[in-house]
Amino acid sequence: MQEEIFELTTACEEYVEPINRLLAQLSSSPVVFTRKELQAIVDAPTTHLFLLRVDGAIVGMITLGCYLAPTGCKYWIEDVVVDAAMRGRAYGRRLVEFVVDFASEKGDGVLMLTSKPARVAANALYRTVGFQPKETNVYRMTLSREDE
User: Fold this and answer.
1) pTM assigned to the model
2) Is 49 inside a domain boundary?
3) What order do you get walking across the sheet with 3-7 strand by strand?
4) Domain limits at 112?
5) Which of 4, 48, 120, 121 has the maximum number of C-beta atoms within 10 A of its C-beta?
6) What's the total number of domains in the chain?
7) Residue 11's closest CA among 47, 53, 43, 59?
8) Is 136 within a domain?
9) Domain holding 11: CATH number?
10) Could you give the CA distance from residue 52 to residue 62 in angstroms, rounded to a whole number?
11) 3-class DSSP assignment, residue 27
């Protein structure tokens, strides 16, 4: 099997469908991802979207966001997903380790992620890679513009 993890640096239409397919497996209420959103991600200097290609097919993805805060550089892992048909082959681990190495090369900081407790395999993976649970509350607020 030929596999490759790569960062998307151009907003090619060919990646929109595979990303939508993966997002549908990640969330029970997935968003419809468009080329416009892909272009915004590619253009954002603090967002890095990585895809996993195996034998020519996109079968996984992971996103890394980074920002500076008064307490230091923060890196966040988001939207980690491997196609259901390809799970159990350590592709999730490879994606996470790839992003850990990528962030480490950027410099000092704290790398964080969130994961639902029900995602038992994902939580086990994060611990074995070196992440430690942080006792904190995560709050969420959905924002939307009035004119949309």
Assistant:
1) 0.92
2) yes
3) 3-7, 47-54, 57-69, 72-82, 110-112
4) 3-129
5) 48
6) 1
7) 43
8) no
9) 3.40.630.30
10) 9
11) coil
